[in-house]
Amino acid sequence: MTRSTESASPDDRSDWGMRFDRIMPFGSSTSSKRARLTPEEPTVIVRGDGCRVVDDQDREFIDFRNSLGPVTLGYRFPAIDQAIRDQLDRGIVFGHPHPIECEVAERFCDLVPGMEQARFLKTGGEAIAAAIRIARAHTGRERIIQVGYNGWLNSLGGGGVVLPGQAGAVAGVPKALSELHHPAGWNDVAGVERILAEHPGEVAAIVVAADYAGIGAGWRFYPALRRLADDHGTLLIFDEIVTGFRIAIGGVTEYFGVHPDLAVFGKGIANGMPISVYAGRRDVMAACGPGGAVISSTFGGETLSLAAARAAMEVYVEQEVVGYLWREGERFWGQVDRLLADQGVPITIKGYSPCPAFVAAEDAPAGVLDRFFRAAYRHGVSLYTISYVNFSHRPADLDEARDRLARAAADVAAELAGTPVVEGARS
């Protein structure tokens, strides 16, 4: 029996998939989580443990999606789960701040270079929105230059990134607002400089999220942005939602040694609990203090997420998590990159090992990434365009995943050669 590599029809999706499609636009509250490659790809995940997840059909996958990035330590990581349970016995949210809110802000500013004050929200998109509002209030200017994907709340400039890796029109955004947001490309110093020259004295901030495949260009790009921001009286905001607590505890700020005026962190800080941080220089953060821009959320100081963040930060420090992500990530992704090359599959893995990107060759057949991801699911490995090794991926797990992906690559090589892939026992 052969298995088609074409997209599955709606009838191939599980009952959950059809139920989601009926009740939710896009079939999920998170656009990137909707399954596209069924029946191989799981439509829903019902539980996770360490580096593995299980779907509603009791299929287990070695997982490198990690909830699209937040699960940096592993599912059900004992220290984090225990911190949440301990705080649950004391209460979740109150009508006044809980001491943990102050303690986590202090610890965060201790760990991230250049951060003097911090506040909390729930998602990266709203944290970036807060930082942009602070920048506008601090500078008295309105225009924003945006590099990369900065969350759905700030997919505002026409032609900018509206979802990770997807540029397009900005539906639902008033033209007057869209015209104040100027997309620029990663490592395009001249493009940023041109926008600043076209709108002298009008740009409040340059907001930049790294391009993960080309992140090494940060050695040139970040210092250049710092110089341009200083020359034009513009603030520099780093979107560290993915890079923070991953390529370094202090993200690109620490790794490249360039200090922004404001930064936002999220995915790496609490091992999956919903929390984001917007932080920066004291004088800049003053713009959201009394009499300034109002940024306020009832759930900003919710204690379960803060307890998880406090515990996660200590695990990072005490167990050298970032070093492990680099070492094992470099070993594993290097092996996967080589096996793809050995099989003649036109896909490479680019970027830094804690957050690498799968990239199809320029002359690759259309849909080759989907072919490989579908084959990976068939062999029990869950991947995404940006995939992550987490702290619970032990060397034995990674070796098992490598062997499974070798079989997936062999399947794709056979498909590209026109040889039917025989469906056998799931590895």
UniProtKB/TrEMBL annotation:
Enumerate the cofactors the protein uses: pyridoxal 5'-phosphate
Record key words, sorted: Isomerase, Pyridoxal phosphate
Q: Does the keyword Plastid apply?
A: no
- What InterPro entries does the record tag this protein with? Aminotrans_3 (IPR005814), Aminotrans_3_PPA_site (IPR049704), PyrdxlP-dep_Trfase (IPR015424), PyrdxlP-dep_Trfase_major (IPR015421), PyrdxlP-dep_Trfase_small (IPR015422)
Its lineage reads: Bacteria, Bacillati, Actinomycetota, Actinomycetes, Propionibacteriales
GO terms for molecular function, please?
glutamate-1-semialdehyde 2,1-aminomutase activity; pyridoxal phosphate binding; transaminase activity
Would the keyword rRNA-binding turn up in this protein's UniProt record? no
The family this protein is said to belong to:
Belongs to the class-III pyridoxal-phosphate-dependent aminotransferase family.
Stated EC number for the protein is 5.4.3.8
What's the protein called, per UniProt?
Glutamate-1-semialdehyde 2,1-aminomutase
Which top-rank group of organisms is this from? Answer: Bacteria
Quote the Pfam families the UniProt record gives: Aminotran_3 (PF00202)
Question: Which EC class does it fall in?
Answer: isomerase
